[in-house]
Amino acid sequence: MDRLGSSGFADLDRVGDVFRRTLALLDALLATGDLPAGGSDLLANETLPHIQEMEEGFRAGLRAAESGLDELRGLVLLGGLGLPAPRDQPEARAALIEAMQARAGAGGGRAITAAPGSRLAAVEHARLVFALMPTLPPDAVRYPAGRRTYADIAAPRSAAELSARIEELERKLWRVATGHGADPADAGYRRVYGFFDVGDRLTPRGLGLD
Q1: Which terminus of the chain has fewer Cβ atoms in its 10 Å neighbourhood, N or C?
Q2: How many CB atoms lie within 10 A of CB 161?
């Protein structure tokens, strides 16, 4: 792995390397229409596993009290979990909370263990990236097409919106990894590029710490 420097923190260095190399790959894809050599391997073996860490961190950190009943139901269905018909509102909420705990790996007869720090760090880094994306100054935006701004890409305002944005990252990157190319006018691809553009600035290299 090509390392330009080290912050002294292995996880931070790893994340910084993934963001730097993924952003370079997305740039090459926009410029040529093709993935560079080794691009599919990078996405499949490094970038997408990091996105999955974000998703796992999101699930581990989700608190049922932070979401409304409809939002909890949507998140459970998104995870493919079925629920029996509830008899009343309290039972509905209890069933949803139980399902969310199962989805996050808690509850039931399983041993309760702390979520790995790297997963929680991944989702908290993602939250910060999403929050800062619309505030990036126009002269700092690196997306090579359209308006030089991410101001129209609002930060997620709820757990459901955050889950949807993480899922979009995973879906779009899988499409790229399997050779579907990239359309510069695709708003979803622009959001993915913007995530890595801003995220690269919140790594040791981007902050000038390596």
Answers
A1: N
A2: 14
The torsion defined by the Cα of 191, 197, 198 and 201, in degrees rounded to 10, comes to 170
pTM for this entry: 0.72
Alpha carbons within 13 angstroms on the beta-carbon side of residue 152 total 8
**Average pLDDT score over the chain:** 76
CB-based contacts of 91: which residues, under 8 Å, 6+ apart? Answer: none
The reply to whether 40 falls in a domain is yes
What pLDDT does 191 receive? 96
Cβ atoms within 10 Å, residue 187:
11
Q: State how far the alpha carbon of 12 is from the alpha carbons of 8, 32, 59, 193, in Å.
A: 8, 30, 21, 20
d(CA 186, CA 73): 30
Q: Encoding tokens for residue 144?
A: 């090579």
Residues 85 and 126 in one domain: no
Look at the chain and report how many structural domains it folds into. Answer: 2
pLDDT tens track for 81-94: 444 455 555 555 45
Q: Which domain holds residue 139?
A: 10-62+117-201
Give the model confidence (pLDDT) of 38-95 as tens digits. 999 999 999 999 999 998 888 877 754 455 555 555 554 544 444 445 555 555 545 5
Ramachandran class of 119: left when φ > 0, alpha when ψ lies in -120 to 50, beta otherwise: alpha
Please tell me the predicted confidence (pLDDT) of residue 8: 46
